[in-house]
Amino acid sequence: MEDYPRTLADFERRFRTDEACREYLMYLRWPTGFRCPRCGGNKFWPQRITLLHCAGCDYQSSVIAGTIFQDTHAPLTLGFRAMGYITSQKNGTSALGLQRILGLGSYRTAWAWLHKLRRAMVRPGRDRLRGRVEVDETFVGGEEDGVRGRRRGDKSLIAIAVEVGGQRIGRIRLGSIPDASAASLHPFVADSVEPGSTLHTDGWSGYNGLEQKGYACEISVMGKQPQDAVKLLPHVHLVVALLKRWLMGTHQGAASRAYLPYYLDEFTFRFNRRKSKSRGKLFFRLVEQQPLPPRSASTNSFQRKKLRPWLNHKRLGLHE
Question: Is 222 left (phi over 0), alpha (psi -120 to 50) or beta?
Fold first, then answer.
């Protein structure tokens, strides 16, 4: 049975100390009790908050190895409160909001925690979408004079795949892509959608050739009016509208292009769990997941705590 706090009061009661947080991490790592990775022994004694010393072979195991807490020196209670607050908010929070609610002295610390959590919201080896799937792209960013169609300009291009069952939306996948060519769209589809599924797309040439990769393709050629796309691919455009509203509302359009993939991961994590009856379930899923490695050189600098790039990257400008 999955064990997680059902209410805010339950959360505060269970995770008041670092020791209580350590016990919960131990439960997730060793559900049937501690087992030494080296000798298989079950007797140990705690050595500092995160280390367990095996009584049989003197091997030291870390309860935070492979978790979001790895390589951090912050108290476990701080990390648990950050995860509890972020998952309890329906639309998430900004770094400034997290700084205020946790009483952090530095905006940079809150920003770093948020990006660590977003990186952990993608489960390695997650199942791909299947069945009937709508696929399209959209731009995120302010209006640009003279930029039309699928030319990017200074805006960011996002690919969207939406699982459709009748009139209902299932799971989604989002990805930041450099352009709308087949070289960019085909890998996104392959990573997001199970072969054998039916892809519903517009008539864009970037989707040509997906039949040879095991997909059944249903093409709806768009008219010249913008509302035609909404009518022919309604589920994708509903997700796009919700995404832009979320970026504009929660983050005030201040997501930089360099870290946009992490914002997309958070939106996907929240959207795919929108029907969860307990917010504590989202907390449980986030704690048990292992964060993915950084995606780019800019995020490597972020991991080394050289966080200055966030000041220099151009923002998406949704509010401009």
Answer: beta
In the chain, which residues have pLDDT < 70?
Answer: 1, 142-154, 223-228, 290-320
pLDDT of residue 164: 96
Residue 1, token pair as written in the block = 């049975």
pLDDT value for 187: 97
Q: pLDDT value at position 215?
A: 97
Find out whether 164 and 235 touch, Cβ atoms under 8 Å: yes
Helix H or strand E segment including 26? helix 18-29
Nearest to 115 by CA among 282, 275, 305, 270: 305
SS3 annotation, 121-183? CCCCCCCCECCEEEEEEEEECCCCCCCCCCCCCCCEEEEEEEEEECCEEEEEEEEEECCCCHH
Chain region(s) in the chain for CATH 3.30.420.10 = 132-272
For residue 285, the SS3 value is helix
* Element holding 135 (H helix, E strand): strand 132-140
Output the pLDDT for position 302. 32
Contact 142, 202 (CB under 8 A): no
What's the token pair of residue 299? Answer: 């995020």
Q: Which amino acid is at 72?
A: T
132-272 CATH, one of 2.70.70.10, 3.30.110.70, 3.30.420.10, 1.10.10.1450: 3.30.420.10
Give the per-residue pLDDT at 319: 33
* CA proximity to 85, closest of 101, 71, 72, 63: 101
Across the strands, what pairs with 158? Answer: 138, 176
Summarize pLDDT for 104-161 with one digit per residue, the tens. 988 998 988 898 888 888 887 889 999 999 999 999 875 544 545 555 556 899 999 9
- Rounded-to-integer distance, Cα 261 and Cα 244, Å: 14
